[in-house]
Amino acid sequence: MKKLLIGVLVALTGVAPMTASAQTPACDGTFHAWHAIEGDTVLFDLDMLGPNDGYAVGQNIPASGRRAEPLVVHFDDADYQTTIPPYELSTDLSAVEAITPNDIYAVGGTVSRHQKLVIYNYDGTQWSLMDVPQPGPNSHLDAVAATSPNDVWAGGYYETASGEYDILLMHYDGAWTQSYVPSPGKYAGLYGLTAVSPNDVWAVGFKKGISRPYALHWDGTSWTPIRFPRSIRSHDGTFYAMVEISPTEQWFVGNAYSKHPLAVHRVDGHSVLTDVPNVRGEEAFFDATAVGSEVWAVGWRIDQVTHPRAAHWDGSAWTNAVVEGAAPNGTMEGVDTDGTGAVWALSKIFASVSDEDDVIEKECMP
């Protein structure tokens, strides 16, 4: 599913100045480059708070190159600003959930010999580290979702006492606690969460050593694994994200090591692997979002190098979406809609071997 040269003043005050945006493009169904984030940054996820108002998270590599700093980018249609939350160890942020302007969560982990969970909360004024139990010597959070300020889920993986990795789910209802999850066996983890209501939460990732796509559902009482037909569960691959269209219709996206992206359509409990036009080479989807019954998925394709990749489901078939500036050695990470029909995404574009940019892209359908 990642770049910003910030001085010491920013690390202390936490805010960098706003930066000008690109011109408004035509509304033509193309992902247009909207904001190029300057400096040495790595962005992994974004979430839209409302119309033309979003947050992206990742890490900043300062000029010294000694520590990775947690990074938050707040953007609107015209500008963006960067924030370095307070931190102690090298830290990356993998996912963000914007509930209200005064209640935003960002999750990730320390980048060190022994990884620790990191969860931040923004109260409208400042970002603060939250108290969170550490389930093992190495653990990391890659997803976060919420239905309200006191119903927040975070997911990832942790190292067990036997040295294997297993699924990790944390829940916040005023305090963070670890939620019991049935273990699918050796080496499993989560990459995506979708929270629709307190009784309708989805988690996706992998099991059996990053070799089988895996999904769970929370009904308000317990987590239950989703059983997919053999044609899907036999794939070597991973689910990175899911989208719920209705209580009876869902999409699960990811990759299969047989080189094609996974785009699984589940209706009334019956799942079908849909056909996504292959551009060329190995492909993967890292995130997805929906407007009504239409779905957008973003990721990469690999031939000899990586390329940003986006596709659109119009309710009956997938078509490939155009990504402005989709140069070689690039990828797309997070994607979300802002409630107006516009779709925002993160894209990494390499202008040269030594020059790369995180780009916030915007698409609206004609």
Assembly state (oligomeric): single chain
Outline type: globular
- How many alpha or pi helices? 2
Write down the Rg.
19 Å
Provide the residue-averaged pLDDT.
85
Please describe the biggest sheet, giving its number of strands, its sense, and whether it closes into a barrel: 5 strands, antiparallel
Record the strand order, biggest sheet: 1-6-5-4-3
Q: Notable features of this structure?
A:
366 residues, five-stranded antiparallel sheet, mainly beta, 29 strands, 2 helices, disordered N terminus
Could you walk me through the main structural features you see in this protein, from its secondary elements to its overall organization?
With 366 residues, the chain is an all-beta fold. It is built from two helices and 29 strands. It has helices at residues 8-13, 230-233, and strands at residues 19-20, 32-37, 41-50, 53-60, 69-76, 79-83, 91-100, 103-110, 117-122, 127-129, 139-148, 151-159, 165-172, 176-178, 189-197, 200-207, 212-218, 223-225, 237-246, 249-256, 261-267, 270-273, 282-291, 294-302, 306-313, 318-320, 331-337, 343-352, 355-363. It is globular, with a radius of gyration of 19 Å. Residues 1-23 have low confidence and may be disordered.
Brief account:
The chain is 3% helix and 57% strand. With 366 residues, it is mainly beta. Mean pLDDT is 85; it is low at 1-23.
